[in-house]
Amino acid sequence: MTRKFLYVLFLVLSQFGFAQGQLSWEGYFSFNEIKDISESSTTVFTASENALFSKNAASNAIKTITTVDGLSGQTISAVYHSESFKKTIVGYENGLMIIINETDGSIIKKVDIINKQLSASLKKINHLMEHNGLLYVSCDFGIVQFNLTTSQFGDTYFIGDNGAEISVKQTTFFNGFIFAATSSGIRRADITNPNLIDFSQWTVVNTGNWTSVATLDSELIAINSTGNIHRYNSNTFVSFSQLPQPSVDMRAVNHNLFVTTSTSVYVYNNQMVLTRSIVNTQLPDINLTFSCASAVGDIIYIGTKEKGLFSGALSGIGTFENNTPAGPSRNNIFSLDVTPNVLWAVYGDYDIYYNPYDLDSYGISKFNNSKWLNIPYSEVYDAKSITRVIVNPSNEKQVYASSFFSGLLRIEDDVPNFLFNEKNSGLETLTYEGPNYIDVRINGTAFDRTGNLWVTNSRIKNGLKVLKTDGQWQSYSTSTILSNAESTSYANIVIDKNNVKWISTSNDGVIAFNESTNTFKKMTFGTDAGNLPIADVRSVAIDTKNQLWIGTTKGLRVLSNVGNFQTEAQLKANPIIILEDNLAQELMYEQFITSIVVDGANNKWIGTADSGIFMVSPNGQETKYHFTINNSPLPSNTINDIKINSATGEVFIATNKGMISFKGIATGANEDLNNVYVYPNPVRPSYSGTVKVAGLIDKANIKITDIEGNLVYETTSEGGTIEWDTTAFGKYKVASGVYMVFISAQDGGETKVKKVMIIR
């Protein structure tokens, strides 16, 4: 146990500084779901689901902050910017609070509320309000003081009846009193009272359920849960105006009151005269759901739940424009495909039982050249629950997306142009719901070497289909190998060097199909039936040694050679046994594995349902990395999918709360040395990273010497890239100068020489 503890401690200590160390990360987050807004005299600060962005109203400069910078992947519920303290405070639904210091860029996490001995459901931070250097944090249990000077928490106020926990939605100061809008009345207390932790010092001004309270110059305004706006008349709140819908946000900024409902924003002056109302049909994307609104100078900003932040002139002149940073449509990316030049992402999903309901309708996203293209649902032929996407390897402009309800969508030149379904193709609808129920469940897809597209069609007898290059469809019956094909769903499919298709199934392990002999075989649960730990397989991958790695909901198995399909009547996979604490253990024992991919150096990246992502050595004996939310920028430990850019080695990790990438060096090996390059070159004094030699063939020998021929480094490539830390065999940093890089193939038949300049 001591060794295990030290290993975990090492990971935490060494990887906590991931942004500054050898590990390099990039975030690809959606900023579309706006949770809250704050403002300074020049800038609007916007919180999306689990990331921040700010926009300077004068320069239009946009800055983003994500988990790569130190935020949590948890869901944000409130944000506040203190202009006097130059700090931005972020509150989360789980009670976490993060302090971002504008002066030095530091980010501090405060877990005091999380650690309170209260039900986790009561720790949500609803609102942040500053007064005299103190921040009053409204939570679902009461109010907590936070000192902005010391960044330390102070007193906690439980202000419900008899000191009970009570949900406080918003606080404000008015005429010497602190007012709190709660789920059980508006309550107030004298701010000079030194004993505010005593619930009896808080008196009920009005009963009922209240959602907001704010001070507008000499007015005190509150709104109840039914959307009735009230004004304070020195001892009680009196009804002023009834909104057509309940409000979702209210705030006073620069002598104006902004009241937001899901479809409208109402702007009042400090005399409570309505000066402007904005409905969602006035925005470029109509019928959006509003979440909040504020203003900087004469610019009004409106947050939406679907398309981010919009701005327009507060005076009403001109149109609204979108201010949201580029990103995918949403954070919950279910599946990816990545080529050397492009990334595609889809959002449809299913639960652990392969149930696609409710039927998601989110469209598809593409990323290349640092730009996002989001294809909306309205353009995908009503294809629901799009769960997989694949780029044609011989034509990058052609993409296919699997709908787990509607069929197979074809996209060409970034435009969806055809939906294959039960009426126009070989695809079939499930039949157990009756002849009039249409449900075409397409999931796993793979191209073979001749360009045919193989797809799985769940819960029917002919579960394996192929779309041939001539446009014709052919079906193969999986009912001959499966115990119940009409109850079977499929995850992914891979094709080996012998053109055998390996398919992961929901209830019968892995099935394999040889097209030339029309033969099926399978591995499933049980020692004599394939030796899988369970019959529910979620991912299969073939490595560079022709081993089949099998990820199940209860652990990992490996088939030693895919060629066994030709020679063995009953295929058998085995666990990988490792030593931990001098005891034999099974690698990934009992883990719910969601995804397995193989990088250019034959390392395995293994995603899990709740334990983050593992990177293990080619034989699985060494766990090189185990990334979680605690030691990396992962926004969630739930890994939906992993894909690797074979040219750059960048590992894209899709979670249910956002996508990040790990910029590794395990690129695929090249066929020759014609495209070898060294970067960065030159190496300047400010650079603290490693020098990469890329474009290599596998098992190439690399020698680096100074200009006089003295050897300073030597290694053998595994894949397409190696790293040099610019030291002489790790002893000391080499001096400034030109260094020669000599590269030769393993058999000496091909060589290449490069130069790199180092400037100290």
TrEMBL record:
Keywords assigned by UniProt, alphabetized: Signal
Domain of life: Bacteria
Alphabetical list of Gene3D superfamilies matching this protein: YVTN repeat-like/Quinoprotein amine dehydrogenase
Statement: the UniProt record of this protein carries the keyword Signal: yes
Ranges of residues in domain PorZ N-terminal beta-propeller: 44-203
Pfam families in the cross-refs: PorZ_N_b_propeller
NCBIfam families: Por_Secre_tail (TIGR04183)
Signal peptide residues on this chain, from the entry's feature table: 1-19
Organism: Flavobacterium panici
Name of protein: T9SS type A sorting domain-containing protein
